[in-house]
Design a protein that fits this description.
By secondary structure, this protein is α+β, with helices and mostly antiparallel strands. It has one domain. Helices cover 40% and strands 15% of the residues. It is globular and about 55 Å long. The structure holds heme C.
């Protein structure tokens, strides 16, 4: 198994991008963990990260479906946004983090950093067949493993991420109020929408990795509740909330 440092990946991608006129700065490469035990650790982390992404995406999907069925898209945006950020914030105590990022983000908290942009470029490259990418960052004493899984647009996503011209007017207004800088529209089914980013501290994240690899579900799905406040990303959604 290849063990890659995040920096070396961003340097490679930066070289490709530079030829297209984009400048990326890369920091000096960090030593990469090597040796048998790290290979085993990486295997465990990949397996566990896959589990976590699976749990997280099915929680978000159920949340979205229940909200869409019960309240419609206008109310569903409130539920989704709150839930996504709550889930994303919930595992840092165990040395794990999960989030979604996109170059065309709706929530500014989902903006990618330099390495993440490089990974998104890789996923966008037709030569990349991988569903996920991995790398290590940090100094010897504080290694972090990163797992990136691509997110592709499906038809159901289009009502909130598709062509603005096809949007329900009320929904469009709501999105603009909650996310004035929204970039996450204009997608078509099959496009790369973004990716999940899982980061695992080594060795702090090992215990949770074992639980996840054993199939323990750590993502709790709570029934959507549209009455529990209107705050999205620090912005207040105001106006008529009745259907
Ligand atoms: C009911 C409207 C709605 C639908 C349908 C919807 N989304 Fe979203 N999506 C949102 C909102 C609102 C956010 C901002 C969430 C937040 O504030 O964290 C968002 C954020 C995201 C993000 C995080 C990156 C960003 O732009 O901030 C991704 C990735 C994403 N959606 C993918 C999808 C995919 C894939 C689908 C289809 C399976 C989908 N969405 C369907 C409303 C929707």
């Amino acid at each position: 198994m290849k063990i890659l440092s995040c920096t070396s990946i961003s340097i490679i991608v930066a070289l490709i991008l530079t030829s297209c006129g984009t400048e990326e700065t890369a920091t000096p490469d960090q030593a990469t963990p090597t040796g048998k035990s790290m290979v085993a650790t990486e295997k465990l982390f990949i397996q566990a990260a896959e589990q976590l992404v699976g749990q997280y995406s099915s929680a978000l999907k159920s949340e979205l479906m229940v909200a869409l069925d019960n309240y419609g898209a206008v109310e569903a945006i409130k539920v989704c946004s709150r839930q996504a950020q709550v889930l994303a914030a919930s595992h840092s105590a165990e040395g794990w983090q999960i989030k979604r990022v996109s170059r065309k983000w709706r929530n500014i908290l989902d903006r990618p950093d330099t390495v993440e942009v490089a990974m998104l470029e890789m996923f966008d490259n037709p030569a990349t067949k991988d569903e996920y990418l991995t790398c290590w960052s940090g100094p010897d004493t504080a290694r972090v493993f990163h797992y990136y899984k691509k997110i592709v647009v499906k038809n159901i996503c289009l009502q909130c991420h598709g062509d603005l011209q096809t949007f329900d007017l009320d929904l469009y207004k709501r999105i603009k109020i909650a996310y004035p800088y929204d970039k996450a529209t204009g997608y078509q089914a099959g496009n790369l929408r973004g990716m999940y980013v899982v980061s695992v501290e080594y060795p702090a994240g090992e215990d949770m990795a074992k639980l996840l690899a054993d199939g323990v579900n750590i993502v709790e799905f709570t029934q959507p509740d549209t009455t529990a406040g209107d705050t999205i990303a620090g912005d207040s959604v105001t106006g008529d909330t009745s259907p």
